[in-house]
Amino acid sequence: MRATLNNPPINLYDYQLSTDLLNLVRYLENRTDIKVVIFSSANPDYFIAHYDIHLIDIRSPPPPPINATEVGFALLATRTKLATLPIIFIAEISGRASGAGNEIIVQSDMRFAGPNTKLSQLEIGLGLLPGAGGLQFLVNLIGRARAFEYILSGNPVDAQTAEAIGWVNKAYASRRELHDRVQTLAQRIATFPKAALAAIKERINFDKPSDVSLKGDNDIFFALSTTTEAQRRSDKYLELSDNQIGNQFDLNLTEDLEELGK
After folding, report:
1. pTM
2. Average per-residue pLDDT in the chain?
3. CA distances, 31 to each of 3, 37, 58, 89, 194 (Å)
4. Which long-range contacts (CB under 8 A, 24 or more apart) does 58-67 make?
């Protein structure tokens, strides 16, 4: 099964996308015939841009009836299902994925990247920490020292670097090759017994970060989001991004994180 992310203009992790993803994983709970799910994007520039800044911005919250707390819970519930459902989840990455976007990627079972991939955790620029698993799962993938480097700097990695340090399984030179190789792998995996696939996933994930520890990250994220500095930086981001429309600042976001502090 292929699930294509399509939430223009930048595949923002907002109320709509969070609801769609949660509905998808709930649907998959009852589909005993599905063995593999590929996440890909309809937008070549963005896999999932990041968390909707309006969800943490006190001066500019999303309009009713959207509830920011519900979106946060939906992200956590989706994250849990990715790790626990007896289905293999593969992220087929084209374009940018930062913050919540990267958190979906690192909690998938496998990750493959196309030529224009940029991965990062942008939270430091907003005065926050990765609150939905990105911090601890990234440590598991790339090690403690590199996690410090990329989380504290907010610097992005391209596909080749991500492959070299273990952020993704493999980088491909074209979107076509990426699509074809991931599709072939998924089809091969789907030929094997589901019970065996589920058992292997469960045992590989035996030492994954605990729910209690992950909830601690989430609690700290929301506590930090209410600080004066985080609110100032959130306002600045919405201003510079023209309200998250995919302008040049959005495209260069992780390179220009320092602008949020000015």
Report:
1. 0.95
2. 94
3. 14, 12, 40, 14, 12
4. 58/226, 58/231, 59/231, 59/235, 60/235, 60/238, 62/14, 62/15, 66/15
